[in-house]
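Why does residue order matter? Because the sequence determines the fold. Keep that principle in mind as you read this record.
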Amino acid sequence: MQNKTLTRFFYFPIMMLTGMAAGYGMAQPVTGLVSGKDCTIILDGIHQSVSCLEVAAPIPPVAVASCGAAVTLSFEDQYYNLGCSVSGFQGYFALSHWAVSTIQGDGGVDVTGAPNSILVEGANSASVEVAPKSEASVRIAIPACGFVSFDWSYIGGSNLLNKAFWIDVNGEHADGLKADNTSGNFFFGPLEAGDVVALNTTAGLEGFQVDLANFAFHSNAMAVVERKWKAEDEAGNQGFFTQWVSIKKPELSQVAFPGDFDGVEAALLSRRSSLSPDWAGYPVIDADGLATTTSDQYPLVGSRVPFELSWKDESTYENGLCITYREWTVTDGCGGNVIHHTQVIKLLGECPGASEPIPFGQNSAPGNTAYPAHQGMGQPLSSTDNRLMLRDSLPYNSMFSENRSSIGN
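Structure:
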């Protein structure tokens, strides 16, 4: 977990926030330790969606203090990998991350962060056990745009009187227990970041149990950052807001391959050159698809892009030239899609051996510091296979900027 602080001062009269994009926040009134007044801090903001290739600065929520006091904002990050999809109650959807509201006899709501009414049974199954004369709501906020699915089945007597189990999304009924429907497959989407999926139960004189299985969350986001903001004034009054930052992967169609060294598209490589991609080029992600602009091109190697990169060389020596046909393959495991491209590389002289000198200045070139040393490239009349797994090659904190500032309004 990472802790970061962003300080900002606000001086506002009592007011309500309007016109803000959807957010998931709550205000917590606390008696002022200095002023002795009841002061409420309200936080509201937007959720972010950023590329895994870019550095994204935090977008703080707007804080409004009814007392007009100066407010300090801070946040705490938790990173969750989503991959192609989440299967089972793990990661962000671990059972410990679900919240439970228990309805008391006086109508009050007891909110806890641990789902005491859920019993863990396995990696991909759980049970909601409802005690007699009780009501509970087990819920979780969706962290990114996507789809949720799971199987549910009622376990109990045939008498359904005063028993209820239903699923709602943002408070609207989506599925539930009926006399002729005691099990089902729940599939819902697309859901947006901040939408709340809740499992609700009511038991009469007899308790019952609902089994859950095959939980899955499908999203185009490869990961999500749960950013918990806290606002606090000098009197100790606090407000809270949870922001989700979706980490998007690029499209496979944005992959641009290196050009040919064939004497037409680019000059032939000299005798001092190498067949290594450090000389002949690696594929990149081209955000706008225009070869004439390079500021929006990002190297695949050394990035967090969840693609698999491999290449195969077929080399031969003809008429004083080493001719290599390099077949590039980029695979998106999530979608099961693959693209191929053949690069033609012609080098003056015989095909080089396995050990080649490092190109001058390579280690200081942008994006090249993470390149591994490749051996066995382009042997005469031979073929070589090479493979790189790109995912998780950079630490999480390289994706986000460190912002520490104090701004007076």
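The longest strand covers residues 221-233.
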